[in-house]
Amino acid sequence: MAAETPVCDFGRKAEDFSLKGTDGKTYSLADVQGPSGTLVMFICNHCPYVKAVIGRIVEEVNALRAHGIGAVAIMSNDTDAYPDDGFDNMKRFAAEHGFTFPYLLDETQEVARAYGAVCTPDFFGFNADLCLQYRGRLDASRREPIPDAPRELFHAMVRIAQTGQGPTDQIPSMGCSIKWRNPA
């Protein structure tokens, strides 16, 4: 079922976490935080919305690193009901797409609930003080990539890195709903 993210709750503080990554390490928010901002993404392996843009996500994260933006991807779906999103498949997905950022399993779904994640992909862009400044989309792509689409996430995060403030006009991300173990 498709879902859309709510309007950005400007200034909301990032929630800490301690989650296992596909590389076997455990990560906290401090481990992924960038000096100029942090991008927390909720994604999964099976979602057609994520599959359509995963190459662009990896490119944008790599480009944002030069602007002092740290990034992390978190997978929060119920892996019993959606085995394609299981940990071994997460490892494979990260390797296939050349992830240069941690890909973490939120097995209890507590992190997704703390952030208020609703879909995959769901982007949370924080400034250097870990205050939320972006809750929009990657670009105009949905289930099909749109060549040369304006780089909405990238430009918002660069602005956040430079000024600490995100754009006031943001278009919500859309994707598959988070697959909750117990309905929220």
UniProtKB/TrEMBL annotation:
InterPro entries: AhpC/TSA (IPR000866), PRX-like1 (IPR047262), Thioredoxin-like_sf (IPR036249), Thioredoxin_domain (IPR013766). GO terms for molecular function: antioxidant activity; oxidoreductase activity. Residues 8-163 form the Thioredoxin domain. Gene3D superfamilies: Glutaredoxin. SUPFAM superfamilies: Thioredoxin-like. It comes from the Bacteria. PROSITE patterns: THIOREDOXIN_2. This is Thioredoxin domain-containing protein. It comes from Azospirillum baldaniorum.
